[in-house]
Amino acid sequence: MKVKVQKIDGKAAGDVELNDAVFGVEPRADILHRVVTWQLENRRATARPTRERSDVARTGKKHGPQKGSGGARHGDRGAPIFIGGGKAHGARKRDFNQSLNKKVRALGLKMALSSKAKDGLVVVDSLELKDAKTKALQGHFDKAGLSGKVLFIDGDAVNDGFAKAASNLPGINAMPAMGANVYDILKHDTLVLTKDAVEKLEARFNG
């Protein structure tokens, strides 16, 4: 699949050949749903568990006589009724992590990239800016016709000047190729890849 390459300001910069094994896979809703669900479940944070009576560092020695004190019987300072004791019926740790085969994860990412390759994929030569200012970057986006939610994926690391300028624009996000994931790709209107990112993503599946 041959795609036109442009500069960040929209000027033409040649062509690039995309690997059909990565960017030409027919998307399937069930696979994408499984991968997105797996990804979001693994992002969920769990509540910090409270310490129950078996978790607190209190003595288990009987601290008073069984009879004769006029009070209740007690045999453990870790009981919930004592200060410093364990909490009764407190929050417990919940595990939301799901397992998903690596082949399914890889297939889902290929399908997400392929869906954008059909509609909403832009390839640029690089994200380097001569004038790393937000206003100048917005002007480049207007010339290139980039609007709405746009995800930029660079090679090993996102260019610092671009990242700082883009951080002030709503709906604009950037990440390196190794951080590319199905959920973030699908939730943006347009996916912008650098030539370096294309090579990294294709090598990611061939490696």
UniProtKB/TrEMBL annotation:
<comment type="function">
    <text>One of the primary rRNA binding proteins, this protein initially binds near the 5'-end of the 23S rRNA. It is important during the early stages of 50S assembly. It makes multiple contacts with different domains of the 23S rRNA in the assembled 50S subunit and ribosome.</text>
</comment>
<dbReference type="GO" id="GO:1990904">
    <property type="term" value="C:ribonucleoprotein complex"/>
</dbReference>
<dbReference type="GO" id="GO:0005840">
    <property type="term" value="C:ribosome"/>
</dbReference>
<dbReference type="InterPro" id="IPR002136">
    <property type="entry name" value="Ribosomal_uL4"/>
</dbReference>
<feature type="compositionally biased region" description="Basic and acidic residues">
    <location>
        <begin position="44"/>
        <end position="58"/>
    </location>
</feature>
<dbReference type="GO" id="GO:0006412">
    <property type="term" value="P:translation"/>
</dbReference>
<keyword id="KW-0687">Ribonucleoprotein</keyword>
<dbReference type="InterPro" id="IPR013005">
    <property type="entry name" value="Ribosomal_uL4-like"/>
</dbReference>
<keyword id="KW-0699">rRNA-binding</keyword>
<comment type="similarity">
    <text>Belongs to the universal ribosomal protein uL4 family.</text>
</comment>
<keyword id="KW-0689">Ribosomal protein</keyword>
<keyword id="KW-0694">RNA-binding</keyword>
<dbReference type="Pfam" id="PF00573">
    <property type="entry name" value="Ribosomal_L4"/>
</dbReference>
<dbReference type="InterPro" id="IPR023574">
    <property type="entry name" value="Ribosomal_uL4_dom_sf"/>
</dbReference>
<protein>
    <recommendedName>
        <fullName>Large ribosomal subunit protein uL4</fullName>
    </recommendedName>
</protein>
<dbReference type="GO" id="GO:0003735">
    <property type="term" value="F:structural constituent of ribosome"/>
</dbReference>
<feature type="region of interest" description="Disordered">
    <location>
        <begin position="44"/>
        <end position="94"/>
    </location>
</feature>
<comment type="subunit">
    <text>Part of the 50S ribosomal subunit.</text>
</comment>
<comment type="function">
    <text>Forms part of the polypeptide exit tunnel.</text>
</comment>
<dbReference type="GO" id="GO:0019843">
    <property type="term" value="F:rRNA binding"/>
</dbReference>
